[in-house]
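To close the section, here is one more complete example, presented without commentary so you can practise reading it yourself. The ligand is magnesium ion.
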Amino acid sequence: MEFETIPTVPTADEVLDRSFRRAAAKKKRKIDADRANEEFVRAVASSISDRLKSVVQRFPNFDLLPPFYRDLADILFSVDRLKRSLGAVSWAAEKARSVGYQYARSMRSAPDTNRVRKQAVARIASIVHQVDTDLRFLNEARNVLRKLPHVSEDEFTVVVAGYPNVGKSSFIRLVSTAEPEIAAYPFTTRGIIVGHRAIGRERIQFIDTPGVLERPAAERNPIERQAVSALINIADVVLFLLDASEHCGYTLDDQLHLLDEVREMVDMPVVPVVNKVDIGGIEGYPAMSTLTGEGVDGVLDLLLRYRRRTRSTTLQARIRSESRQ
Ligand SMILES: Nc1nc2c(ncn2[C@@H]2O[C@H](COP(=O)(O)OP(=O)(O)OP(=O)(O)O)[C@@H](O)[C@H]2O)c(=O)[nH]1
Ligand SMILES: [Mg+2]
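Output:
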């Protein structure tokens, strides 16, 4: 995922400190003082410019991000604001270099190069300080974005929803081939759990939604609401688990109400399944028990019916039907 590789974004003072230190080390080696001043200003300007440019380059292009990540970045930080800050940092990178080089050139005819050097340093520092809030904002965004869950947009994806304690995590642990991965999701303190299961040459991706649905939609703020739907919207199908035994602590009525809410929230199919059938079930729904394993294969088969037809299978189908004609 692109956000993971974004390095820490330095503050304005950090950019300045590092660049001055590097240029000062170089300057010591020069014998001619005027020449040394000129080179110092040039070195500071280009080092600052490179550092700022690299901040911008290490961010992904927000227009090319997969929709899930773009949506999340937008909900959390506003893509427009991120782009504005990146634009400001680019501007500072250019400006620091051109201003620095101008001062360096003007030193050749200056009577006092120490004075010009000080002016140049002050001017460059002020340019970098102008984008300090942008740098801090970008770093704040980087710290959150890099911890987002890894979700693949290419795999057949099942999002598992339902009230707490209905058995969502138990289901994912049971059907996942590898240990599910837990990643931070900014809208739940419990993180997001992603598991995979290989089926032939394909993989199914399961995403657990702990702590995102238990409060009524009306109590969620607009940002949380968007975040929850961004999460659910990566699904090809939503598996909605019900606990008819009500051992989870929520009445079946409340659970069915949440099922309706989720159905309204998303465009993809929502498949309700009763879990914990070993201790209680109801008519009219497929049932399973993640404790005894009963019915689990049937639920997996049911989910697989919603598998997107990939381009190759559509193509194969077309070839088959054409060869029949
Ligand atoms: N009897 C029975 N208990 C189950 C079954 N599946 C899960 N449980 C139990 O139900 C409790 C909750 O299971 P979890 O898998 O943690 O439920 P969850 O939906 O992930 O809960 P949250 O993470 O809080 O949202 C645990 O004590 C499980 O052992 C089942 O099929 N039968
Ligand atoms: Mg859980």
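Once you have examined the tokens, check your reading against these statements. The pocket of guanosine-5'-triphosphate (ligand 1) is lined by residues 164-170, 210, 275-276, 278-279, 289-291 (CB under 6 Å). The chain has a mean pLDDT of 90.
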